[in-house]
Amino acid sequence: MKRREVLFITVALILGAVIGGLLGEIIATYLPDGAAKTLFSKSIEIGFQTLKVDFYAISFTVGLMLKINLLSALAVILVMIYFRWWYL
Question: Does this model's pTM top 0.85?
Answer without folding.
Answer: no
